[in-house]
UniProtKB/TrEMBL annotation:
Keywords: Glycosidase, Hydrolase, Membrane, Transmembrane, Transmembrane helix. The chain crosses the membrane at residues 511-532. It catalyses: beta-D-galactosyl-(1<->1')-N-octadecanoylsphing-4-enine + H2O = N-octadecanoylsphing-4-enine + D-galactose; a beta-D-glucosyl-(1<->1')-N-acylsphing-4-enine + H2O = an N-acylsphing-4-enine + D-glucose; Hydrolysis of terminal, non-reducing beta-D-glucosyl residues with release of beta-D-glucose; a beta-D-galactosyl-(1<->1')-N-acylsphing-4-enine + H2O = an N-acylsphing-4-enine + D-galactose. This is Cytosolic beta-glucosidase. The keyword DNA damage does not apply. One of its GO terms (biological process) is carbohydrate catabolic process. Its EC number is 3.2.1.21, 3.2.1.45, 3.2.1.46. Pfam families: Glyco_hydro_1. It comes from Peucedramus taeniatus (Olive warbler). The active site is at residue 380. GO terms for molecular function: beta-glucosidase activity; galactosylceramidase activity; glucosylceramidase activity. Belongs to the glycosyl hydrolase 1 family. Klotho subfamily.
Length: 536
């Protein structure tokens, strides 16, 4: 049932995006190549072979996009820094890019001038390509020191103004999609080992960066360092079945617990160690494919988060499923479970993203119980559409945001320590291996238009109302927001249709007319040659 009420005073409302997905300018002003530049430039890696080379042109549109943030009346903006933009090879001793540093300085200053708090992620997947080629990226332990150098440079250059730092955004995807399935950059399929090894190095890197901040910068800058973990909720198919309940627990531990357990409790979840260890032994391996932390490392890692960032999109039903003994090992068969969805769950966009708001409250309560009720910022939550024609009247996104934000309000009443919410995302942007086919933005971008204009969807108006009211005051008012949002988007849709027609005409003018003109000249030359031959 829907709960009417407001959030505590001082609750932070925001919106987010990431560098590679929005900035573009992939090789401009001294930026070095990232693994995503290399990956997208290889044919067949991304749908329709699209790239983030220009993305939303965010590098050139900072002022415009901050204007959108002001329109939304958000308290904060979550952005990421592109490591190769400020350190082209990823190695501090080799080269710094002053223009890249200046770009982020200007962005941070502009946000603060407009009373918008920057929440900055140091890593949203764009590792410098040089580090991948030289060392094998996150498979190599040397990344710990290279990343720590980069993080310290960011603290030095921006830490006087940035007070909320995220070390890694969704490291689960970095490890699993980058080194297990190869769907994401760097595109490696190191089945059964690669993801665990990458995650191990990422967790140790996170801890090192937290300690660096704690010893060198905290007293002077008084900021916070956390991590952003993305996880779905796993609900047992049969809540009365112990095997299903255990399988659902494994689902959460193999996603969220993989990273959160070492940081909050000092080691990998027992169930992960047991399952991966047993399967490794069955395969005749002398040691587990899941690496181990030394006693010193466990102590060093435990407690290295001032807040926990949570990304959450959807829920699955989970049940026990025994996989037969396989010589080929895989992270996906290690937990012995199967995932199901309810066909009645709304799935407005891609087939993985079902709208199941009640799962969010359960996930937040799990975190409260499991990790000692940490300070939580919701760092990513949103829904995408996959429709080819522009959809500004995004009724499904309004329903999604309304449902999921309401579950946070319920979780607050349960005693969960949530301090802020970040809608994902500000703009339609480059969605990794899906290219531009999935659109998460509150603002629509016409990517066919070279100016990449931004148009507000109905969800902009609706989210703005939630922010202004700091929640959901009463049924009549909330119903009124919905009607107003739909009215506004109809007018914007007409504006977009007119602009699209103009863009189409401009394309015709730019491409067709010169082509026709060239053909006319060629035909004239051919006719002239015939004429001269006949008269000679």
């Amino acid at each position: 049932s829907f709960y009417y009420g407001t959030f505590p005073a001082g609750f932070l409302w925001g919106v987010g995006s990431s560098a590679y997905q929005t900035e573009g300018a992939w090789d401009k002003d001294g930026k070095g190549p990232s693994i995503w530049d290399a990956f997208t430039h290889r044919k067949g890696k991304v749908l329709r072979n699209e790239t983030g080379d220009s993305a939303c042109d965010g590098y050139y549109r900072v002022k415009d996009d901050i204007q959108l943030l002001k329109e939304l009346k958000v308290n904060h903006y979550l952005l990421s820094i592109s490591w190769p933009r400020i350190m082209p090879t990823g190695i501090k001793a080799e080269q710094l890019n002053e223009k890249g540093i200046q770009f982020y300085n200007d962005t941070i200053n502009s946000l603060l001038e407009n009373n918008i708090t920057p929440i900055v992620s140091l890593y949203h997947w764009d590792l410098p390509q040089v580090l991948q080629e030289k060392y094998g990226g996150w498979q190599n332990i040397s990344m710990i020191n290279y990343f720590n150098d980069y993080a310290n440079l960011c603290f030095e250059k921006f830490g006087d103004r940035v007070k909320h730092w995220i070390t890694f955004s969704n490291p689960w995807a970095v490890a699993e999609k980058g080194y297990e399935t190869g769907e994401h950059a760097p595109g490696l399929k190191l089945g059964g080992c690669g993801a665990y090894k990458a995650a191990h190095h990422i967790i140790k890197t996170h801890a090192k960066v937290w300690h660096s901040y704690n010893t060198t910068w905290r007293r002077e800058q008084r900021g916070m360092v956390g991590i952003s973990l993305t996880s779905g909720w796993g609900e047992p198919v049969d809540p009365h079945s112990q095997t299903d309940r255990d399988a659902a627990e494994r689902y959460i531990q193999f996603h969220l617990g993989w990273f959160a357990n070492p940081i909050y409790r000092g080691d990998y979840p027992e169930v992960m160690k047991n399952y991966v260890g047993r399967k490794s032994a069955q395969q005749g391996l002398g040691t587990s494919r899941l690496p181990t932390f030394s006693v010193q490392e466990k102590t060093y890692i435990k407690g290295t988060s001032d807040f926990l960032g949570i990304g959450h999109f959807t829920t699955r039903y989970v049940l026990q499923k025994n996989f037969p003994f396989l010589q080929v090992s895989s992270y996906h068969t290690d937990p012995d479970l199967a995932e199901l969805v309810d066909p009645n769950w709304p799935a407005p966009g891609p087939k993985w993203l079902y709208s199941v708001p009640w799962g969010f409250r359960r996930l937040l309560n799990f975190i409260k119980t499991q990790y000692g009720n940490p300070l939580i910022y919701v760092t990513e939550n949103g829904v995408s559409e996959t429709l080819q024609c522009p959809q500004l009247c995004d009724e499904w996104r309004i329903q999604y945001l309304k449902g999921y934000i309401n579950e946070i309000l319920k979780a607050l009443n349960d005693g969960v320590n949530v301090k802020g919410y970040t809608a994902w995302s500000l703009l339609d942007k480059f969605e990794w291996n899906k290219g531009f086919s999935e659109r998460f933005g509150l603002y629509h971008i016409d990517f066919k238009n070279k100016n990449k204009p931004r148009y507000p969807k109905a969800s902009v108006d609706y989210y703005k109302k939630i922010i202004s009211a700091n929640g959901f005051p009463n049924p009549r008012e909330v119903e009124n927001w919905h009607q107003k949002a739909m009215d506004t988007c109809s007018a914007t849709h007409q504006h977009l249709a007119a602009d699209s027609l103009i863009t189409h005409m401009e394309m015709v003018t730019e491409i067709v007319l010169p082509t026709v003109f060239t053909l006319c000249i060629l035909i004239s030359i051919v006719l002239l040659i015939f004429y001269l031959r006949n008269h000679s």
